[in-house]
Amino acid sequence: MPFDKETTDVLIGGYMSTDAAHEDYEAVLNCGARLWGAVVVSKDLEGNLSVEQTDHMVEEGAAGLASVGFVVGLFAPPLLAATAIGAALGAVGGKALHRRTGSKIEEAAGETIPIGGAGLIVAYKHTDAQTVEPTVARAVKKVVGEAEGHHVEALKGALADAQQKMAEAGG
Amino acid sequence: MSELDRTSLPIRRETFAGVANRTLAGSQPDWNLIGHPTAPVGAPNVLLVLIDDAGFGNPSTFGGPIRTPNFERMAEGGLRYNRMHVTALCSPTRAALLTGRNNHAVGFGSVGEFAGGFPGYSATLPRDCAPLPRILRDNGYSTAAFGKWHLTPDGQQGPAGPFDRWPNAWGFDYFYGILGGGSSQWDPCLAENQKIIGTPEDFYDEEHPYYFPDAMADRTIEWLHGVRAQDARKPFFVYYSTGCSHAPHHVAKDWVDKYQGKFDQGWDRLREETFARQKELGVVPADAELTPRDPAFPAWDDVSDKLKTFYARQMEVYAGYSENADHNVGRVIDAIDELGELDNTLIIWIWGDNGASMEGTVTGSFNELTMQNGIPLTDEMQLQLSERYGGADAWSTSLMAPHYGAAWAWAGNTPFQWGKQVGSHLGGTRNPMVMHWPARITDAGGLRSQFAHVIDVAPMILDVTGIPAPDTVDGIEQEPMHGTSFVASLTDGAAAEHRTQQYFETIGNRAMYKDGWWLAMKTERIPWVLTPDALRPYAPGVWDPDAGPVELYYLPDDFTQAKDLAAQHPEKVQALKDLFWVEAERYKVLPLLAFLSTFFGMLPPLPDQTKFEFRGDVQNVMPGMIPRIYNRSYAITADLVVPDGGAEGVIVAEADHLGGFSLYVKDGKLTHTYSMMGVFVFKQVAEEDLPTGDVTVRMEFDADAAKPATGGDVTLFIDGRPVGKGRMDHTVPIRFSGYSGMDIGRDNGGVVDRSYEREKPFAFTGTVKKVVFDIKPHLSDDDEQALHAAEHHGQAAHGLSA
């Protein structure tokens, strides 16, 4: 089937540890599905950023993935005294997610990946969703966006959809 | 020397019995004048050992899975006591143990951190209740305390005192340890006598790093040697109170590895195994029943394989940590033996002050303070955060402040229900005790089952030393001790029960014991849950303590509290309820739930200090005494002198990477790092270099709202110019650390920002003239009052698990 007839999915996963993100990244690479691209970005405790991506990533995919704002603010813990601390999360998440398309992965991730955290983005054919999604087992926050059309447009659309869902999920 | 009157302390000085003429001619000296009161002839040395946050089913000596060869050695040469009782919480047990009086009656219905406005909860020892060490010291004993103290109110742990709440004033000649309820074992903020001495120098020695339990034993042995070098006969009283097994569970990997794979069977099976060994040893009667698992604890079989590995490691660490405590107590005992004094040293060793602690919540935590700060983390989040800080191999290191999952604590309290905080049940109130005293005990290896309580320990020590409880101390008439000596049990296994009645109360969980009957009145709140929903039923005017569920047990037939007889004996239930109220009034237990009074709007006066100034050499400000910057806007301003060529280092830092903040200069840039309990870490860096000469730097946090854990924007300034900014989405609502202090001009102990770990303590190479915290008042009085309430909710929450 021609690429531009496919529905494309983009999965974004957020992690509190690099190990967990890499575990899922490896699982995704070995799941047997054909991926348009996968990238894991992490920041160590000293604030150093590292990026790892598949060798098979299509050029358009890489460009598209680079636009993602990584959001790993993940939960809104209720406090003892009846208040909640998560109210600001959604707003911050939204801000991070609407970064200019086309920025480099490092720049986007550098500003939005928290110290000690990691993010995983995987793009794949929607028909492979049942194969890919269950392998992303350790994300503390996981969303999937989807879009149809020509592959670049579909990828961008799926990213936007995933970003929106992440924002709606409270970061 | 005339017979001393020991009923009034201090003992009055000797009357001059010589002759003092105008000149030496015909004068007769009286050398008794320069002596000091001596202990009664034959008075034994006393070593009182208290292990922290441990349960009846932990040590191998009582059938548990943790090897305790020294505890066992003492039991084999002495006596096991299998019906010794504590108060279900740290400070209250310590207060009762050291005063011989019920904990509420001496102001410790709660913990040292939380000084409330009711007599039973003031965390302030009344002057008419002189404690045991004071009595022994005034009667000719050398006295010393090592380890965990936890009897000094939170806000009084600095150079301004007041020192009458510190260990020396309780009667200890010497103190070395921690004032608070728990501490890192790698970099504790130490106190010695009346000074906070902070992080030990050896913390920076990578080859031979400092370890608090080792240092405690070293210091104890050194002190004993010093005393004996000066005086070969003066008896000693050593109170050896380990920080172990309280969280954070810190111990070297070698100790942990001994237990690798030993807990893979899980907590349900572990309880069964322990119970079988307990019966075999005879510390639990053969006809006893193992109590079932409460639904609050998950079944091991329902846990995923990945989490089973994670959880098993938590218990391996706890076990290694606990065995190390046994090892170090053994070193102290060996030192006494080497002095040739073991025969006449009464060793009283209690394995736990409140049952094992369930405060790690169901998941356990990489950082015990996450629970106290109200941060609910799922099991997967906890697992990932532990991976962030090094994973399984780092669980016991200074990279984490770990606490195991609640079900491990429940297993540690085998065969009983519940654990710490639950004063209504034996899981929180019954701990193993061993007594060793070859000079007196003839039934070595025996078992004793007299119902005893920690209030009985001080009267017993006085009994065996021949020292009376004083009628007056410093001219103040004394309240008699509430405990009773059980010395008869030392030589007579069939000695009559000395204690036939005892009340228990901890955070609303109550019990009344009389003549074998035990009425348990547990609140329905799960001990580690402090959500509004969980607290609402206990609000004033809502809660009726008499309307809650009750359980009735007859302990002579039911050692473990497995058979609830409440429905069959309503008249007994009522009689014990009535008796509890009488005892509660008598011993200042009322009002119930005073510990939680701040949650229900009973707040201390609003503090009015908004500016806190620290000169450049102030270090080791205890965590409960740092400026109240939580949940609000604030600014930190520092006046610096930066030499030509620039400077780097820390300007001010509180605590460490698991919660804290640091304002520092690195690579010429002013930087602010803020760790929200190690879960989120925020960092802002100035965009221009720090100039030389006299420089004023400032960090401003503009909170989104006056509310717990508020987010907000950070701006960095140099000489009034904004030079950097950033955002902190969440801030710490309650407390950065339970033990790590604030320092000016350096970052003592574990560092806040791991990027300068290699340069620790990263002292500022210029001059920090002063640092000023400006606690910006919020717009309305209501906001200030709300923050004040939040702060005290946090104080109480911290206290619950300290």
Question: How would you describe what is shown here?
Answer:
- The complex is a heterodimer of chains A (171) and B (802).
- By secondary structure, chain A is of the alpha+beta class.
- Chain A has one domain (3-74, 89-168).
- In chain A, 35% of the residues lie in helices and 23% in strands.
- Chain A is built from 6 helices and 5 strands.
- Chain A has helices at 18-29, 59-65, 87-97, 105-112, 129-132, 151-168; strands spanning 7-15, 35-43, 49-53, 118-125, 141-148.
- Chain A has a 5-stranded antiparallel beta sheet with strand order 3-2-4-1-5, sandwiched between helices.
- In chain A, a hairpin with a 5-residue loop joins strand 2 and strand 3.
- Chain A starts with 6 loop residues before the first strand and ends with a helix.
- The model of chain A is unreliable at 57-103 (pLDDT under 50).
- Chain B is an alpha+beta fold and 802 residues long.
- In chain B, 22% of the residues lie in helices and 21% in strands.
- Chain B is built from 16 helices and 29 strands.
- In chain B, helix 4 (212-230) packs parallel to helix 7 and helix 6 runs parallel beside helix 10.
- Chain B is globular and about 80 Å long.
- Chain A binds chain B through residues 15-20, 45-47, 73-75, 77-83, 85, 88-89, 92, 114-116, 138, 140, and chain B through 373-378, 380-381, 383-389, 391, 530-532, 599, 657, 678-683, 704, 707-711, 727, 729-730, 733-734, 753-755, 789-790, 793-794, 797.
